[in-house]
Amino acid sequence: MTSTAVVNRYGSALVDVVLSPNSDVQPSEALAQLKAFDAAVSESSDLRSILASPAVSAQRKRAVIRRLADLIGASRVVRNFLLVLSDHRRAAALTEVIDAFDTVLDQRLGYVRAEIRSASELTADERERLAERLGVLAGSKVRLRFAIDPDLIGGVTAKIGSTVYDGSVRGQLAQLGERLSSNPAFQS
């Protein structure tokens, strides 16, 4: 298992390279290419074995990485980064490095992340309006991640950092209950 500090260093270093003026890849393309490579490795036990095995030579691993990078159309930057990970025996941490890259990239581009949970799938218009409202609340551009939560009766909850905005029916009922129980007119 690779430490969080190491994973964050690799992710941050890749962000530096991707955002540099001489980069041959856009940030969103780099992320998509990394995810495609990771998915291909995850789906193949042979690839996982080759990249993880100390019995396979570094040259053989590099050849496999180059071939797979070519097949997914990876940029020079992404291909070289994957080779560096392999050379430093960090290929097993690729999924975590991708997550760190995505997080650092959002921070550098001025985005905050919001986790949205809804009772049902939101329409494109609802997502857009939610992004606008949360952007105003956060005072920044917001990158939304959506999930369906069957435990919600209706509405949505949004979490930005440690702040939770509860617009769910359950949350509104709980607030109503608190107001009623604190009102002397409703106490016996």
In short:
Helices cover 59% and strands 13% of the residues. It has 188 residues and is of the alpha+beta class.
Structural class label = alpha+beta
Could you give the count of β-strands? 4
- CA-atom Rg in angstroms: 22 Å
Instruction: Please give the order of strands in the largest beta sheet.
Output: 2-1-3-4
Instruction: Tell me the β content.
Output: 5-15%
Q: Note poorly predicted spans.
A: none
Q: Could you report the average pLDDT, rounded to the nearest whole number? A: 88
Question: Which CATH C-level class of the largest domain is it?
Answer: Mainly Alpha
What is the CATH architecture descriptor of the largest domain? Orthogonal Bundle
User: H/E series, N to C?
Assistant: HHHHHHEHEEEH
Kindly report the CATH topology of the largest domain. Answer: Peroxidase, domain 1
Biggest pleated sheet: 4 strands, mixed
- Quickly count the helices: 8
Task: Please outline the helices and strands.
Blueprint: H1 4-18, H2 27-43, H3 45-52, H4 58-72, H5 76-87, H6 94-108, E1 111-118, H7 124-138, E2 141-148, E3 156-160, E4 163-166, H8 169-182
Parallel strand pairs: 1-2
Antiparallel strand pairs: 1-3, 3-4
Label this structure with key terms.
188 residues, alpha+beta, Peroxidase, domain 1, Glutaredoxin, 2 domains, four-stranded mixed sheet, 59% helix
